[in-house]
Design a protein that fits this description.
Helix content is about 35%, strand content about 15%. By secondary structure, the protein is an alpha+beta fold. The protein folds into three domains: about 1-25, no CATH class; about 65-80 and about 95-100 and about 260-320 and about 325-478, Alpha-Beta Plaits (2-Layer Sandwich); about 120-260, Alpha-Beta Plaits (2-Layer Sandwich), CATH 3.30.70.580.
Amino acid sequence: MLLRSPNIIGGSAPAASVIFALSAADSLTKSKAILRSCSMGKEAEEEEEEKVYAHYNHTDSCKHLRWTARESYEFMEKRPWHEINDFYSNLVIGHYSLSYLFGPSKELQIKNAVNRCGDLPESADSLKEFKKFTEDRRGRWQRLTFKIVLSYHGGSFDGWQKQPGLNTVQGVLENSLGGFVDEKKAQQLKERLLPVEPSVSVAGRTDKGVSALQQICSFYTWKKDIDTKDIEDDVNNVAPGKIRALVVSKVSRDFHPNFSAKWRRYLYIFPLKDEDGPVTVNEQSISCDTVLSDKDLEENRCIEDSLDEEPKKEVADFNQVNSNGASNTMNDESQMKPKCFSVSKVNQLMRQLEGKSLSYKIFSRDTKASRSTGPATECYLFHARAVETILPCETKVDAGRQRVMCVELVANRFLRKMVRVLVSTAIREAAAGADDKALLRLMDATCRRATAPPAPPDGLCLVEVGYEEFIQDFCLII
């Protein structure tokens, strides 16, 4: 480029000098920027090495056996989650049913759980009465509202809520329903350069990786000539094997999937492992996820008592760092922490939450400040149980099938990531040998670090949404 400059061709030495000076200045600036970025990168690495992770100061006798946030995370992540993902995928496409987990006695109950709340009355007298009630209405009462019972595989989407550039359930669903938008609304959207899609409401927005078997959503339109079978077909064709419309029906105009709901049912499937290496606990070898007996739990309590008698094992001693920058005391404590838990103990911890309206702000994550205090944090748990079972697998005999722990939670509502934090914290407390009221006491904690980090989303599934009074006899785990 320099040889083509008119000044240089004409023999103008000063102009050439200016150009070369500018090039040198640019090179110097770039070099300084590179050195600065290298220096900042080195400082960041040093800060990361020197970073001190804050832990909640538990004061009970189990504090030395309780996992840290990092230990909880590692314990949760090192699991065969692909088998849980495969199971949920088979549930969505209809190859499996939850009765495979909980027995054939639940088959009829699960089939009847496809909720019909809000459907238009079917009898002739009821239809006549309903028509008379609405024929004089105007505005929104003239529109048609359709309810969709939706099933989808969470591992195939980036969560429910529509976001630019992401493959979300809401985005895919609204795209499939574009043909049912009325002409007036379609024209308005085109003028605003927006896609011709309806706005879909939902009973509960699920996070990335969370599946749903009977999610309830709805949309409205002023278009009259719509067949529910056409809606079902369009939804089922948009992403086969990943999302499926179970039932589509007309509902009353005042139906809302979220505000009309009285309870939600979630299921969390946690894979158990037998092949993890044994961990020495007070000269005893315990394999991971062993279902502990009462004698084992009593021995865990003995370990806690012995730790309390040794001042050198206090948490304050974790600050004594050796020449390699690691705490010998912390390593010793990590080796003494149990790496197994009792499913029955998790069940006992969970059952203490039933029938109580409590503030679950300590068990939520990523919530707005306005929803972190007061009534907005209160939830009523109708049902909270855990049981061990086996995943179905056509290619494995019973001895080789995956053992899992299933946790069923039913509440009037759930806070963000509340189910996953409850599950991970219950597992942590069960492993530490805490008493049955450990989760209740954590409600009074002053910091969310008192609870464990959220369990992986792969195990969570929204089973159904209820619009009638809750009946405990219809639960999956009794």
